[in-house]
Amino acid sequence: MYGVGDALVFNASTGIFLPPLPLAGVALAFKSGGTRVPLTETRTPRTPRIIAMWFFSPFERPAWLRPAWLHRWINDLTPGVNGLAAQLAQRFRDCLRHEPLPTRPLVIVAAALAAGCVAGPAIPVGAVAAVWACWLAAAACVGGWAVFIRRHHPRPAAVVLIGAVLLAGAAWSRTRLELFDGDDIAWQLGPTPVPLGIRGTVVESPRKLLPPAGDDRRAAAIGPSSGCVVAVTAVRTGSRWRPAAGRASVIVAAEPRELPVGTRVRILGRGLRPAGPLNPDEADATARARAARCLSIVRVSAWGQVRVTAGPPWWSPTAAVDRLQTRAVAILDEQVSPTRAALAAALLLGQRNALPRATADEFVITGTIHVLAISGLHVGLLAAGLFTICRWACVSRRWAGVAVAVVTGGYMLLVGGGTPVVRATILVWVACGAVAAGRRPATVNSLALAALVILLWRPAEVLSSGAHLSFLSTGILVGVAHMLRRPPELDPIDRLIERSRPRWEKVARRAVGWTGAAAAASVAVWLATAPLVAHRFHMVSLVGLAVNVPVAALVPVAMACGFLCLLTAPFSATVAGVFAGGCDLALAAITTIVSLAADLPGGHAWVAGPPSWWVAGWYVSLAATLIWLRRDLLCRVATWATLAVVWSVVGIVGSWSSPHPAAPGLRVVMTAVGHGCGIVVRSPSGRCLLYDAGRLGAAAAAVRSLSAVLWSERITAIDTLMVSHADADHFNAVPDLLARFRVGEIVVPAAFLASPSVSAIAVLAAAADRGIPVRTASAGDAFAIDPLCRVRVLRPLPAADAEGQPAASDNDTSLVVAIEAAGRRVLFTGDLEGRSLGEFVAAGPGECDVLVAPHHGSRTSLPADIARVTVPAYVLASGRGGRGWPEVEAAYATAAGQTPATVLLTGGDGAVAVTLAAGGITAERFTEGRWRPLPARDQVVAERVVAGRVGQVNKAPATISTSWLTTYVANNSNTPLVNP
Which of 303, 463, 776, 945 has the least C-beta neighbours within 10 A? Predict the structure, then answer.
């Protein structure tokens, strides 16, 4: 047997790993065949050995590989090293836990079920085959467990039973996520809306949908919207109705109306399926839809298209709960001030639909959003308050526990039964059962029971960040409470001193102790959850460490006053108003603290987030520390601080040793933002240029997409941000990006500074507030991103050259640039079209390897002409195309002659990335959750190199041809008319 630290020595002559030798000096021996012969009889104690390399062997090696001074140095150094290693090993063994871990069987079962839920979707076979295979294997394991139990072999029986749980979890998760009814209406829908008629039953009543952040004008123009969920029973095919199944999320472009759960409705609208992520690191709407088993979306223009065919049954408990919830929201709207009624509904009932987006964002960036999500804090406060009231009313502990269990169960149904509230309710029920039985509950086992219930109900929650944060925070709070629990004071003198203190001093000491405990718990939860929050949500909120303590102190006051307002409103509006006033004051204090913290400079930071391996290793290290270290060491802050510092160093070293690979040449990523533009350019040295940032419609969607692409490329700073022209769909995401990323400079055409657009003025104001320089560029300007990458400005013309020409539109002043690196050239054309584009083509822009199609690839972009003079290998178009897109695509592809171009449209297909290097060009498309390579262009590149056209500029002017445009019918309203 070989101990920890023994060395395996490789014999190069025989190719055999020999058993280790005790080191005294360096006592090594080799003999033919791998037999060891000791050189000395001296043996050292069983301590960690120094790993001996094979070339230290004094036998069968040349003399120059075994110098005498090296052996003397090793002989002198070895005793000291062995002694130091022995001391370190002994200290390490002293830190380890010697007593057995407490028995927590449900923890093992929950871990096995969670592992199965994770592994189930990853099984590389069809869903039906995987489900049947897992169920059969689980049944076989149960049979094996019965055999082992009968033969009195408990350990093998436990192993196969855990295997059965794991396999059952894999089968169950695969069933819930991938197997749906054959009559589900989602099977006849696609990503494009189609007319649809359905019948069904309302399972979630209408709720107001928030308008997109930062798009108030558009929200005012399109009006409010609301959404509900309907369980489909029939679908209309032609003029007939046929049975159907599934759930549909119904979105109505109107204010919500009263439609209780259980109401039967008939809906006429347009149906589609949610689309998957179009950009890396984006949220996956299809995964959320599968987890909720609601695969369809039905859009309705007005409530007139929703006809009620029957009301809910009078005996329906869900309808009763829904009515109660609607009535509670109405009471809060009446009693609490209008500015904070929505916040009260979110805090008490979990109804965040009517909460202003700006307020919600402040809670997010200050790390206090958990206050608005019904979780253990709310359920725990409700349970503690009710139990205290029952005890004051002289109710026995057992009946008080029953009352708490009933009320918390009803509250869970009232607020909707999310994962955090279900977890907290189960913990309260277990505690109430323990009180009734006269026993102390095992908190860790209770958490495992809650995890089992949630995974059996919603197996997809095993990958939910919200569930991870909920259970992690609860576990940390339990651990901190155990650490801060003071031992009983046995010294009579200390007890006498404590009793002799005045009451005010006792209260003050108790308040200080509670504040310190709350601060310690807040810091512990923040340290434990910060890596996951940074990795998943790309945010680090430092101000949350200070804000959570006062906010947590005000939440009980607001909840107590709010619940008393709801309880007294049916009997006395005056009394309810008094309690509503108290709730309003507490909420005002909370919003003031949160608003001040959100505006604090440096209070929060947007980050790319640590890599997945580091986050996983952090939580594995936390678990290993809890399992293996002594209990007294776990109660020391130095232990956890050391662990955090050590793992941070590991992350830093890992990032240095294996950084995100930089592109061998120039990398261009065109983000899929719908009708808009956002192109990320990464130079060979890793510097970033962003060309345009916006979309038609909600700017928040463009911000999310561009941020996701930048963070996926491990970019945290934008060195140059170029705005092509003053159309909002090219820059309305810039203000929010300035808040999330460090921006070196903003480059715009001169016409942008004179634009009367409110959005353009907001961009300039945001840049001025942050001290970001804004400079203009025109044809003839050039600057370097880095020594290996240069930007040349081709349009617009300088002011002197543009004099005498007719007034230009925003599109005519588009910033047209060519980026050159690694002997390659990329041409960005903005929204140039019509006469300006014709003049640009006639002037000879030169050939390029990648062309970004003008004006999103519209019909007015002269595709044949610009492709003929630029001869691109790839043409990228940002947008959704349109009816004329097939003709546009054909014109771009065939205009180059013998070397057809590859035309790529983002639209609903996904982001496109092109990497240009001296040796070739590669293209990728983001689809099905990852980058997938597109067919290689090696042959095309080789032909262009042989022809000598790489990097050359065509000086001959091109003629303006409008023949392609005149092939369309002039009276077609979808065809833009251009008169060059």
Answer: 945
Residue 411: count other Cβ atoms within 10 Å of its Cβ: 22
Nearest 10 degrees: Cα torsion 202, 208, 209, 211: 160
Backbone angles phi, psi at 700, to 5 degrees: -60, -35
What does pTM read for this prediction?
0.80
Contact criterion met (CB below 8 Å) for 679 and 668: yes
- How confident is the model at residue 69, as a pLDDT? 60
Residue 393: what are its φ and ψ, rounded to 5°?
-85, 10
Q: What's the pLDDT score for residue 27? A: 35
Q: What is the DSSP pairing of strand 247-252 with strand 194-209?
A: unpaired
Residue corresponding to tokens 């159907």? 244
Q: What was the pLDDT predicted at 630?
A: 83
DSSP category for residue 261: T
Give the pLDDT of residue 660: 47
Backbone φ and ψ for 643, nearest 5 degrees, come out as: -60, -45
CA angle 653, 655, 657 (to 5 degrees): 65
Q: Residue range 384-388: average pLDDT?
A: 88
CA torsion sign for 612, 616, 618, 621 is: negative
Contacts of 517 (CB under 8 A, 6+ apart): 480, 484
**3-state SS assignment for residue 201:** strand
- Could you read off the pLDDT of 893-902 as tens digits, one per residue? 877 655 678 8
**Cα–Cα distance measured from residue 876 to residue 871, given in angstroms and rounded to the nearest whole number:** 13
Are 432 and 382 a contacting pair, CB within 8 Å? no
Distance CA 622, CA 530 (A): 13
Structure tokens at 470: 């909920």
Q: Strands 789-795 and 240-243, how do they pair?
A: unpaired
In this predicted model, what pLDDT tens digit does every residue of 721-767 receive, in sequence order?
999 998 888 999 999 999 999 999 999 999 899 888 888 999 999 99
Q: Read off the tokens for 650.
A: 């590991």
Question: What is the pairing mode between strands 306-310 and 264-272?
Answer: antiparallel
Residue located via tokens 């990503």: 191
Q: How many separate helices (H) and strands (E) can be counted in the chain?
A: 30, 27
Please report the pLDDT score of residue 954 as a whole number: 34
Element (H, E) at 203: strand 194-209
pLDDT in tens, 419-467: 888 988 999 999 898 888 888 877 888 889 999 999 999 998 888 888 8
**Residue length, the chain?**
980
From the CB of residue 766, how many other CB atoms can be counted at a distance below 10 Å? 18
Residue found by looking up tokens 């510092």 in the block = 645
- Helix H or strand E encompassing 234: strand 225-237
Order of all β-strands in the sheet with 850-852 = 782-786, 789-795, 816-821, 824-828, 850-852, 874-877, 902-905
Q: Given CA atoms 663, 665, 666, 668 in this order, what sign does their dihedral have?
A: negative
Determine the Cα–Cα distance for residues 923 and 942; give it in Å rounded to an integer.
16
CA-based diameter of the chain, in Å? 104
> CA quadruple 844, 845, 850, 853: dihedral positive or negative?
negative
Residues near 157 by beta carbon (within 8 Å), at least 6 away in sequence: 144, 145, 148, 149
Work out the number of other CB atoms within 10 angstroms of the CB of residue 795.
Answer: 24
Q: Angle at CA 664, nearest 5°, toward 660 and 668?
A: 85
Burial letters 361-400, b for 16+ CB under 10 A, else e? ebbbbbbbbbbbbbbbbbbbbbbeebbeebeeeeeeeeeb
Closest by CA to 261, choosing from 331, 320, 346, is 320
So what's the pLDDT on residue 33? 38
pLDDT band for position 490 (50/70/90)?
A: low
Strands 717-722 and 688-695 come out as parallel
DSSP letter, residue 350: -
- In which band, very low, low, confident or very high, does the pLDDT at 890 lie, cut at 50, 70 and 90? confident
Q: Measuring CA to CA, which residue among 429, 524, 405, 399 is closest to residue 474?
A: 524
Q: Residue 797: pLDDT band by 50, 70, 90 thresholds?
A: confident
Answer for the pair 189, 272: CB distance below 8 angstroms, yes or no.
yes
